[in-house]
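Continuing the series of single-chain predictions for the mutant panel. This is the parent chain; the variants come on the following pages.
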Amino acid sequence: MINKYLVEKRSWIFLFIFIQGFILFIAYLDKALPLMPFFYIIFLSMLVFTIFLIFRYHKETKFYKSLVEWENNLDLTNIAKPESPFEKMIEKSIVKQTEWLKQEASQNFLILEQEKDDLLAWIHEVKTPLTAMHLMIDRVDDERMKAQLTHEWLRIHLLLDTQLHQRRIPFMENDLYIEKTDLKTLLFKEIKTLQSWCMQKGIGFDVDLEAPTVLTDAKWLAFIIRQLLTNAVKYSESSDIIIKSYQKDGQTILEVKDYGRGIDPKDLPRIFEKGFTSTTAHHDNAATGMGLYLTKRIAKPLLIHIDVHSDLGRGTNFTLTFPKRNEFNHIASM
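Parent structure:
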């Protein structure tokens, strides 16, 4: 800050030095004037000017230091009180700008809330005809047509489900309910939803649950597993998907392993990024790149650690490591 202050006051400093030099120059030209007293006067002037500059530095930079330390959070209480007219002008401008930003933020928040509520209402309304459509598809006699319709119905269902959870994530911590969750019930429900798609692709499931329960939020865990199973089925053909759970170092581990196309090693670090699909030429025009991104975001407040190992052309293994019971102390209070 002191360097910036000296740069700011450089014109005044140069003027003072020039005046002192000019006085010495006049004394030098006029032989009738003794030179030593002028050196003494200039020395005292320089001393007084230096003390004055130090005093003014502490006084004039107080307001600007508070601006530098300001966190730009629209809270003006931490800004020092202005003293000079220019500081008051700056404060007045900041106050006006801050008030305008607060109003804009408030309006945008209300608009966003309204849009979120409208979208959630729309999703719930769409679910009613979607359920009716599923019942109608069950009555179709042509098995080939029935399988195709069921597959397209499932795509719509999963897209709506993703949108629903995406809108709820910002308020997820207010919605958490940590309880003992039965993995078998949860997994079989998700597998049943994908049953027609799996039959169409010749995919089966091998489930081995040595650790039958986990302590977590059931509905959010269901979404995570739904995304992993959907990806496993989507990128596999005529193979089994291995699901197993076990205990390790006091933690429950859940693995979902497929023998599908796998993930390119250069893509692995990016699969949880928003909107990322793939850099390989698989023509995933229907992929949104949101499933694993939302999975990672949901896993974080649940304290679930996700690892992924994959061999291109040989399959992918997702590992969910659940936290120990004592790690849930702060979550249980939400």
